[in-house]
């Protein structure tokens, strides 16, 4: 099991890197994810889609975690969904989540924010580890995300505790691997 000391190492690696955040090709994030999970969990990440999608494994094929185009943030976001999803959700298409496309009513947007808080908090940790700029997403161009950004920041301590617990082990593994990628200086691109 990964320890609190390992998580502290992740923070020190991230803080010891260049102050400047850099965007990178999602290809390196894909490589890290697949190296961490392709064999042990029969899941493969890939980009290039118009919309993200999770397709569970079948007898003949590994699960597919598909993100938008070549956006590093989308790769990290979908990785966060996968890391949070338990075994039962990972057996269902799109983790059995319902999606309401924008524009949304205020009530629908509030439900979206509530559903996304944990995922986007974890995504922000992954982004920090990978040196990718994190921007909270409302998935709705007609919506102000400032209050949601504050909620994500407020949720960070809970996310960090979860990462140190057994349930957060996959997420911690990915986070540490992203930090090693960043530390090696090979994450720009």
How would you characterize the overall build of this protein?
By secondary structure, the protein is mostly helical. It has one domain. It is built from six helices and three strands. The protein has helices spanning 4-16, 26-41, 72-84, 106-130, 146-164, 169-183; strands at residues 43-49, 53-55, 63-68. It has a three-stranded mixed sheet with strand order 1-3-2. β2 (53-55) and β3 (63-68) form a beta hairpin. α2 (26-41) runs parallel beside α3. The longest helix is centred in the middle third of the chain and has 25 residues, at 106-130. Residues 1-23 have low confidence and may be disordered.
User: How do the helices and strands follow one another from N- to C-terminus?
Assistant: HHEEEHHHH
Shape summary:
globular
Number of alpha- plus pi-helical segments = 6
* Measured distance between first and last alpha carbons: 32 Å
Assembly state here?
single chain
Q: Structural class, from secondary structure content?
A: mainly alpha
Total count of strands: 3
Taking pLDDT < 50 over at least 5 consecutive residues as the criterion, the unreliable ranges are 1-23
Please summarize the sheet with the most strands: 3 strands, mixed
Whole-number count of domains: 1
The neighbouring-strand order within the major sheet is: 1-3-2
Overall mean pLDDT: 86
Helix content: 40-55%
Q: Provide the gyration radius in Å.
A: 16 Å
Strand proportion, as a percent range, falls in: 5-15%
């Amino acid at each position: 099991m990964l320890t609190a000391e390992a998580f502290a190492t992740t923070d020190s690696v991230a803080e010891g890197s260049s102050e400047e955040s850099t965007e990178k090709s999602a290809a390196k994030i894909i490589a890290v994810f697949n190296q961490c999970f392709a064999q042990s969990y029969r899941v493969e990440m890939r980009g290039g889609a118009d919309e993200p999608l999770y397709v569970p494994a079948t007898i003949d094929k590994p699960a597919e975690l598909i993100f938008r185009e070549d956006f590093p943030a989308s790769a990290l976001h979908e990785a966060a969904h996968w890391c949070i999803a338990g075994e039962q959700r990972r057996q269902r298409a799109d983790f059995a989540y319902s999606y309401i496309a924008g524009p949304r009513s205020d009530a629908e947007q509030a439900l979206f924010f509530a559903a996304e808080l944990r995922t986007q908090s974890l995504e922000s940790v992954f982004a920090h580890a990978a040196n990718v700029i994190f921007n909270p997403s409302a998935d709705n161009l007609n919506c102000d995300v400032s209050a949601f950004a504050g909620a994500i920041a407020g949720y960070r301590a809970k996310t960090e505790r979860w990462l140190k617990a057994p349930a957060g082990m996959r997420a911690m593994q990915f986070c540490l691997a992203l930090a090693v990628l960043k530390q090696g200086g090979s994450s720009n691109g």
